[in-house]
Write a structure and sequence with these properties.
Elements (H helix, E strand, L loop, with lengths): L7 E2 L4 H11 L3 E6 L2 E7 H7 L9 H10 L2 H4 L7 E2 L4 H11 L3 E6 L2 E7 H12 L20
Parallel strand pairs: 1-2, 4-5
Antiparallel strand pairs: 2-3, 5-6
Helix pairs in contact: 5-6
Length: about 150
């Protein structure tokens, strides 16, 4: 999880936002207006408005097009959040339920970090201990009381 939350202002252009994502190597940004989170913009959101590779626009025209779009035109306003005291399993269920790749984590009404699918995979790898040299056993037991 990234506790340093990089965000973007609602008035930023699509081009500025795309450049920020590339510079910071991130794919999700909370959108702020007057320091309040009002949405989220993802790399996928930007790619959906990006001109196709089959376009007749030249590079300058594409940059102009993206610079004229604002984050407000592109962002998702229905933001799914989770809370700092949620378990990894609860976070995974919410991601699957809402088909999202990330969400802001909130504590006491303030965003504290962004939780992504990469964070989820890292947590699962750490929880299973697969990186450590060990022996793992798997059992197929009936789902009845006292079967262990």
């Amino acid at each position: 999880m990234s506790s340093e939350v990089i965000s973007v202002d609602i008035k930023a252009s699509g081009l500025e936002t795309h450049q920020l994502m590339r510079q910071q190597n991130i794919k999700n940004l909370p959108v702020l207006s007057d320091d309040e989170m009002i949405g989220i913009i993802t790399y996928k959101d930007i790619m959906e408005v990006y001109p196709s590779k089959a376009t007749v626009l030249d590079l300058q025209e594409m940059y102009y097009f993206l610079s004229e779009l604002t984050v407000d035109d592109i962002m998702t306003t229905e933001v799914i959040t989770c809370y700092a005291d949620n378990t990894v399993e609860e976070a995974a269920m919410e991601m699957e339920k809402h088909n999202v790749s990330c969400f802001p984590v909130v504590s006491d009404g303030k965003r504290v970090c962004i939780f992504t699918k990469s964070d989820l995979l890292r947590a699962i790898v750490n929880m299973t201990g697969v990186k450590q040299k060990s022996i793992q056993f798997g059992f197929n037991l009936p789902d009845t009381a006292g079967s262990i």
